[in-house]
Amino acid sequence: MGHTIVFWSPVSGLAGTTSNLTAVAALLGLEYTARSVLFGHSPSSFTALEQGFSRTARENGDMLSGTDMGVDALLRLVQNHKLQPAMIYNYTLPLLKDRLDMLPGSQRTDESFIITALPWLTSMLDMAKRAYDLVLVDGGCGARSAWTMALLQEADVLVICLPQNKLVLQQFFGHSSMQELLESKKHVLVFGQYDRHSALTAKNLLRPLGKQHHDAYSISYNTRWLDDRQNGDALRYFFRNRHVGKVHENINYVREVRMLAQALIKQCGLNQPLFGGREDHSR
Question: Which one, out of 35, 58, 191, 274, has a CA that is 20 to 30 A from the CA of 96?
Fold first, then answer.
């Protein structure tokens, strides 16, 4: 049985949630034997995620553009009690053979999809976890919608993307319902769009809140990654940069994403070669 990993932020647009998920997915596909799927769901959540892999999708021949493909097809099958784990591969787009697939999001409006899919979310994710080692989900931001809360509850591991912002952190860690969720879930904290030169380091931000012992990672702002992701070259970015030298402009970004990917693999118990771990530990 696989694991559902949900990337989510309490605030919108400040912590690079989709960017962080895209980077981790690309690196996992290139360096780990675990088979992963980017699980598209509502249209608004999938569009930005799809953007990062659009060039690869075109090169692989994107044939999943119909109205009953991707998650829409899974929803139809699960409603009719016909969905089997092996069938899911037929509705995904392979990005890296036997490593990373992408399940296109719904062709419906957000409202129409969510109303229909909410009762079936658990069943769809359970089937996906039988087919894949890792089911990677963009949980969006905030916690006001029933759909977002359902995604958070379904997470086996929750990746909480945070900004370097004292006020946001105080509000987040002061929210009792969020703390109850954290206590019930495996989770990691990720400071996205991170400024490595700021005095507001992750430790300095967490220490006054008594959270300095939490597993916390940072993913710095990186100009080349910003450009490549928006041009659909997420996989090529890591293919080109994962072995760069110590003085290369992209080395810190790659190291940070690699550290987060390794932490998630360990959280899911997949850190053994041939069982989801890295193929070559000398990298």
Answer: 191
